[in-house]
Q: What sequence folds into this?
């Protein structure tokens, strides 16, 4: 039963390495939501993440003989850094197997702590399989990232600190979930000591392995996992963590990429800390909970779980933040291709700020524009704008929730394909971002079909995102599908996407 974790958590002797992190108020967010919002600052650990707690607690349970054999783990970042620091502190040799797609900032951080880094595979699963093969070969001790009682207990010390730091009334705590170690440990402690506090697990919509498990009443493997919030991008919840959480949590909240980006901005404005996407996941869930329940006057806590992010990812995060906050609407609009049309269109918008405007002259007839508009999230301005433009006779499409439009089309608006271009199909891809990956991608596709459109942007993450157009006769569509299966990359057929049809088809 989960209460068996209480003694393990109380006995965790981790504070000669891990630190007790502060519980900080978020005054700006509190004022905006009408609630008292607090942040548990796990980004202030020595490795900028809570992961050092569980890794170190697990190592403290090993015998002298086991420590002499050395430790090994597979990780894309935070667990790797926590284990590397713990190993250095205890004078134990460590090997960390990391995917080749791991950002260099995390690889170098692990090396600085003295661990040996082995780059293997493009995904965590491939790295994990190799690490377990090394365990059999070298006899080293495998330190799991989350699905282990001692790791769970180490992470549970976050809750022990939290309840001691805030003995007054607390309504709910929001905790990010990947494999579930942090949430399981914290939920077990909170529900035993102060059971009236609600505990909510928060995970990305595109990596919602806990939600799927709760719905099926058993663990399931997600067929695909989104990689934006890489610290919580897990295809299957842990066995032990699921056993604990299904008894201790009050619900699961899923959040979108845009909502996570907005939460990163909120954390920065209140603390001047830049959270990694997984680190802001819990706050995104807290905001969604408040909005959905229309709560006021409650005390709500979100765990800011980490701050390990590449600097160049901030460009992408910044682009998505306004939409995530509900402060920007993105529309595709048809206006007459004649003098004065742009001025007339802008006059209808009044003094509302235009955040983006993309247009290219395309001859006589109609012009297609891509426009971003600042809106008030407290009002239904997005729908009101849409209806107003339609009443004025404009053909308009709402692109605010269109992933392809936000990721690619907004950077490509420049005219439709020529009339002689026929049989064009459009695909959106994600592929491992490492040296030579883009060439490898092109090498497998180019030469078989004429590439008619191509857009790629590096967002500083582990995976590159590409939009590709190809001329494929109808009789060869099955061959395309076979080739895409051989690539083994995530992909989406976007030929019927409204954004493509509107601007580029």
A:
């Amino acid at each position: 039963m989960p209460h068996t974790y209480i003694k393990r958590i109380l006995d965790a002797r981790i504070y000669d390495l891990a630190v007790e992190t502060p519980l900080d108020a978020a005054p700006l967010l509190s004022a905006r939501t009408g609630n008292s919002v607090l942040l548990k600052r796990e980004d202030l650990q020595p490795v900028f993440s809570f992961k050092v707690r569980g890794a170190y607690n697990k190592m403290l349970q090993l015998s002298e003989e086991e420590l002499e054999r050395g430790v090994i783990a597979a990780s894309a970042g935070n667990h790797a850094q926590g284990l590397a620091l713990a190993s250095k502190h205890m004078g134990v040799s460590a090997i960390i197997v990391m995917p080749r797609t791991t950002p260099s900032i995390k690889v170098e951080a692990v090396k600085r702590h003295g661990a040996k880094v082995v780059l293997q595979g493009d995904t965590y699963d491939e790295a994990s399989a190799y690490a377990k093969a090394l365990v059999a070969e070298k006899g080293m001790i495998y330190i799991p990232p989350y699905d282990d009682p001692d790791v769970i207990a180490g992470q549970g010390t976050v809750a022990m600190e939290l309840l001691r730091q805030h003995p007054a009334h607390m309504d709910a705590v929001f905790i990010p979930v990947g494999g579930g170690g942090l949430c399981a440990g914290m939920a077990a402690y909170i529900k035993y000591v102060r059971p009236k506090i609600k505990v909510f697990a928060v995970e990305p919509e595109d990596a919602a392995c806990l939600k799927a498990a709760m719905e099926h009443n058993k663990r399931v493997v997600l067929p695909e996992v989104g990689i934006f919030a890489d610290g919580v991008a897990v295809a299957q919840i842990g066995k032990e963590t699921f056993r604990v959480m299904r008894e201790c949590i009050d619900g699961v909240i899923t959040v979108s990429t845009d909502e996570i980006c907005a939460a990163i901005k909120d954390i920065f404005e209140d603390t001047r800390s830049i959270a990694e996407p997984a680190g802001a996941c819990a706050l995104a869930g807290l905001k969604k909970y408040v909005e959905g329940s229309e709560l006021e006057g409650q005390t709500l806590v979100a765990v800011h779980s980490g701050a390990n992010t590449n600097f160049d990812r901030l460009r992408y995060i910044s682009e998505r933040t306004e939409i995530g906050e509900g402060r920007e609407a993105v529309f595709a609009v048809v206006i007459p291709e004649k003098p004065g049309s742009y001025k007339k269109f802008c006059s209808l918008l009044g003094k509302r700020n235009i955040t983006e405007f993309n247009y290219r002259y395309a001859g006589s007839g109609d012009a297609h524009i891509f426009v971003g508009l600042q809106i008030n999230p407290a009002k239904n301005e997005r729908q009101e704008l849409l209806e107003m433009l339609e009443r004025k006779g404009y053909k308009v499409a709402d692109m605010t929730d269109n992933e392809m439009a936000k990721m690619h089309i907004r950077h490509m608006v420049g005219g439709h394909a020529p009339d002689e271009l026929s049989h064009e199909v459009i695909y959106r891809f994600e592929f491992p971002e490492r040296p030579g990956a883009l060439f490898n991608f092109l090498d497998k596709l180019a030469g078989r079909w004429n590439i008619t459109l191509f857009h790629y942007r590096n967002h500083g993450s582990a995976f590159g995102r590409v939009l590709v157009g190809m001329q494929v006769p109808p009789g060869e569509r099955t061959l395309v599908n076979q080739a895409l299966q051989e690539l083994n990359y995530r992909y989406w057929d976007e030929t019927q996407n409204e954004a493509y049809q509107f601007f580029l088809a």
About this structure: The two ends are 58 Å apart (CA to CA). Residues 51-142 form a domain with the Rossmann fold fold (CATH 3.40.50.1100).
